[in-house]
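Q: What structure does this chain adopt?
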Amino acid sequence: MGFFKRIFGCEKKEETPKVKTHDPVDGWGREEAPEPTEIQEKVAEKVPVYYVAALEEMGVEETPGEEHTPRVLEYLKTVGLGEDDETPWCSAFMNWCVIQEHRGDDGDYYYEGKMHPADSLSHKVGTGRANARSWLGWGKEVSRSEARKGDVVVLWRGSPRSWKGHVGIFEGWSGNKVMLLGGNQGNKVTIAAYPSVRVLSIRRQIR
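A:
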């Protein structure tokens, strides 16, 4: 898969490199695997590919003023936008993350044996829409007690009955807060806490 080749630099499974450490009983010479990277740990947890893609984007943020962050514009293009990074982009970021599973080594996107533009593919595997609440119809709904890292969480914004919302990836519960990994959280990709009462739905990718 092209996405994992970009992370690990190889397609085939390779043996984890060993490092020599000191054994208090046998002395020097015991081999031990080095600490895994954060990305490798997430892959080991069997979280969705889009979660790993989102984690790789941590720190991407809007550019104040008339300049715009190219990466944010790339997110927006998945929903047919991309003029400026002032446009709300939490749903665009989710769409971008979801299509990364289908990105080839050449940078193009492939689905069911055919190449697709990013904004076309997002309609097939994401929602293709800039509205955060569009994710209410994606995947299948799971209960709060069943929520696990990598699920997609939709929040209401302003009012539960309004059209406004926010979407991000479930990290966990922290008291009466839900922790989300997402875009346009304080104008950047980060992990942030939101009141759990604002949760409209928790969605899980259908494989």
